[in-house]
Amino acid sequence: MGYVTVRDLRVRPGDVWEKLREQGEMILTSNGRPMAILAQVDETDVEATLAALRRARAQAAVARMRRAAAQMSEAEIDAEIDAVRRERPPGVA
Questions:
Q1: Among 26, 36, 86, 83, which residue's Cα sits nearest to residue 57?
Q2: Are 77 and 69 within 8 A, CB to CB?
Q3: Longest dimension (CA), the chain
């Protein structure tokens, strides 16, 4: 997987699109930091690709929460749950 800068995308978009066709995926960077993933898609599977990306993001978020929870004591977890419950509007389960 290659990297491309925001500047390259702005100045030489044709070169970037050609590389994307060759590589399939690229990381878009700004000031040396990753900010986006460019992925080649076929017009027939755009929705399926987007759904897969959303599932992967959700799975990564759950994994982060599990890692964070593993570092917490039972009392800290209970306190976190209580805090979230207090923030809920009345009648929301």
A1: 36
A2: yes
A3: 56
Cα–Cα distances (Å) from 64 to 7, 68, 88, 91, in that order, read 32, 6, 23, 29
| Secondary structure class of 24 (helix, strand, coil) | coil
**Strand boundaries in the chain, DSSP class E:** 2-5, 25-30, 33-39
Give the global pTM.
0.65
Tens-place pLDDT, residues 33-75? 999 999 999 889 899 999 999 999 999 999 999 999 899 999 9
CATH tag for 1-40 (out of 3.30.70.1350, 3.60.150.10, 3.40.1620.10, 3.30.200.20): 3.40.1620.10
